[in-house]
Design brief:
mainly beta, nine-stranded antiparallel beta sheet, 1 helix, 9 strands
Length: 176
């Protein structure tokens, strides 16, 4: 009798745990997205996982300076554009990409990579890089707990903003 009760209970527990893990709800860095309408039906969308500071020193410690970072947590951050765009002066054809960054105290580099669907680290996709562009770095007025990617309308395009801790890295994007 015990075996008849124990086995279904155990199976229910295993399937519930697996289903919970697949939804991503168990991840401490929840999924987030940002989008920009460039006009004329042209759009950019970025999907990422948003880690939290949790009292940690981020840049120069958790995220080392001078090393490629997945720009978020979990899976690599996606960058999907429905039209050809110019990112920091470099042309990116319409398509799906991943983005990585190389943070530094005074300058960041954005990497647009043709490889998609990968886990964010370790970075071993140099041969698939489409572009590396410089990003502007500025200081946020107060610490930001949640890692955030956002787009702001700027003239005929958008500015991609990456904000976390007390740092903002940004780059202009325009339709080609």
């Amino acid at each position: 009798m015990r075996k008849r009760i124990l086995l279904p209970t155990l199976l229910t527990l295993v399937f519930t745990t697996a289903a919970f893990a697949q939804t991503g709800k168990s991840r401490p860095s929840p999924a987030a997205s940002a989008a920009c309408d460039l006009g004329g039906g042209k759009t950019i969308k970025t999907d990422y996982s948003s880690p939290r500071m949790k009292g940690r020193k981020i840049y120069g410690d958790l995220v080392p300076f001078g090393e490629v970072w997945r720009t978020g947590a979990n899976d690599a951050t996606t960058f999907v554009t429905s039209a050809d765009v110019v990112v920091g002066g470099k042309t990116i054809p319409a398509g799906s990409y991943t983005i990585f960054t190389v943070p530094a105290a005074d300058k960041w580099t954005l990497i647009v990579n043709k490889k998609t669907g990968e886990w964010g680290i370790p970075y071993k996709y140099e041969s698939d890089e489409l572009a590396r562009v410089d990003m502007k770095v500025s200081k946020l007025p107060s610490p930001l707990e949640n890692f955030t990617i956002a787009y702001g309308k700027a003239g005929n395009g958008c500015t991609l903003r990456i904000d976390w801790e007390t740092t903002r890295a940004s780059v202009d994007i325009a339709a080609k």
